[in-house]
Amino acid sequence: MRTAVQIGDTCLHRGCIPSKAMPHAAELVDGIAEARERWGVKATLDSVDWPAPVATRDDIVTRDDRGVEAHLAHAGVRVVRGSARLTGRRTVQVEASGPERPSGASGLVARRGIVLATGSRPRMLPGLVPDGRRVVTSDDALFAPGLPASVLVLGGGAIGVEYASFHRSTGAEVTVVEAADRLVPLEDGVRARVRTARGDTRTVEGFVVPRDRARLETAVPGIHVVGDLLPPPSLGLAHASFAEGLLVAETPAGLPSAPVDYATVPRVTYSSPQTLPWG
Ligand SMILES: Cc1cc2nc3c(=O)[nH]c(=O)nc-3n(C[C@H](O)[C@H](O)[C@H](O)COP(=O)(O)OP(=O)(O)OC[C@H]3O[C@@H](n4cnc5c(N)ncnc54)[C@H](O)[C@@H]3O)c2cc1C
Q1: Is 225 part of a structural domain of the chain?
Q2: Using a 6 Å cutoff on CB, does residue 271 contact ligand 1?
Q3: Cβ–ligand 1 contact at 238 (below 6 Å)
Q4: In angstroms, what is the span from residue 46 Cα to ligand 1's centroid?
Q5: Does any ligand 1 atom lie closer than 6 A to the CB of residue 19?
Q6: Whose CA is nearest to atom 3 of ligand 1?
Q7: Is the pLDDT of residue 64 over 50?
Q8: Which of the listed residues 104, 159, 177, 260 has the most CB atoms within 10 Å of its CB?
Q9: pLDDT above 80 for 47
Q10: Is the peptide bond before 252 cis (omega within 30 degrees of 0)?
C-alpha cells in the first residue's frame, strides 16, 4: 500500500490513522469477552478474519489521503514530489520522483521562508537489523501479512504499549521490554537526557533545535522547523505538529499567533492494561 511519496506521511499512512484502526478491531474482540464474562451477554467469538479489518483500515487511509490531496489542491498549494536538499537560505534542490516531474522543480526559491518538516523514522537498537519478517519496525508491523502467535515489543512507550495491547487482544503471547522502571515513562513529563564522553548532558540528538523557540525559527532567519523534527518540549504528536505548522504559517502572514503551549496539548496512550485473556 505504501508509495514512495505520500502526503500526510507518518500520521496518515503508518502512524495515527492506520495504527488506531487496528486497535478498534481488537477493542471489539475484547468487548465480546467482556460482554460474556462480566455482563452475561452470551456472545462467542469464532475468529478474526484478518483481511477484513486490514481492508477497512486501508479504505479509511485511502479516503483520508484523497481528502488531504483535495484540500491542498483547493487551497492552491503546489505539490512537488521528490527529495529536497537545502542549498541556501532561500533555495532548495529537489530530486523529483514519481510520474509527474514538473519543469523547474529541481531548483526552488522561497520568497518568504522555508519550513523544515521532514519528520522522524523508527530507530533501531545497535546490532538489531530489521528484516521485515521477524525483526520489524512499527512501520513493518502495521503491514504484516498476518497475526503473529507471539510478540516481543522493544520499548514500552506510547507506540510500544499500543502494539502490545493490540497483539494481546488478538491472542498473541506478548512481552514488553522497557529500560525505564515503568511503562510509558515519558507520560508524566520525565525527559530523557544523555551524558556525553566529555561529561556534559544534553537532550537526545537528531532534532533541529530552533533558536527562537516561540516562533520555531532556526539560527537562519526565515527557516522554521515543525513536527517530529523538533526536540522536546514538542511532543511528536500529529496535532501538536499541526499547531506548530499554523504558527509558522500565520506569523509571516501577519496574522495574530501565539507560541504553542505544550502543557495544554491533550495526549492519550491507547492501551488496555485491563484486557481480559483470550478465550
Ligand atoms: C505507529 C505510530 C502511531 C502514532 N500515533 C499517533 C497518534 O495516535 N496521535 C498523534 O498525535 N501522533 C501519533 N503519531 C505521531 C505522528 O504520526 C507524528 O508526530 C506526525 O506524523 C509528525 O508529523 P511530521 O510532519 O513532523 O512528520 P512526518 O509525518 O513523518 O512527515 C515528514 C515528511 O517529510 C518527508 N521527507 C523527509 N525528508 C525529506 C526530504 N529530504 N525531502 C522531501 N521530503 C522529505 C517524509 O517522506 C514525510 O513525508 C504516531 C506515530 C507512529 C509511528
Answers
A1: no
A2: no
A3: yes
A4: 36
A5: yes
A6: 15
A7: yes
A8: 260
A9: yes
A10: no
- In this prediction, residue 190 has a pLDDT band, given cuts at 50, 70 and 90, of very low
For the Cβ of 84 lying below 6 angstroms from any atom of ligand 1, the answer is: yes
- The neighbour count for residue 168, using CB atoms within 10 Å, is 22
pLDDT band at 242 (very low <50, low <70, confident <90, very high): very high
Of 108, 119, 143, the closest CA to residue 206 belongs to 119
pLDDT attached to residue 1: 44
CATH number of the domain encompassing residue 151: 3.50.50.60
User: Closest Cα to atom 35, ligand 1: which residue?
Assistant: 118
Q: What value does the CA radius of gyration of the chain take, rounded to a whole number of Å?
A: 22
Q: Cβ(138) to ligand 1 under 6 A?
A: yes
Is 246 a domain residue? no
Residue 157's domain comprises: 138-192
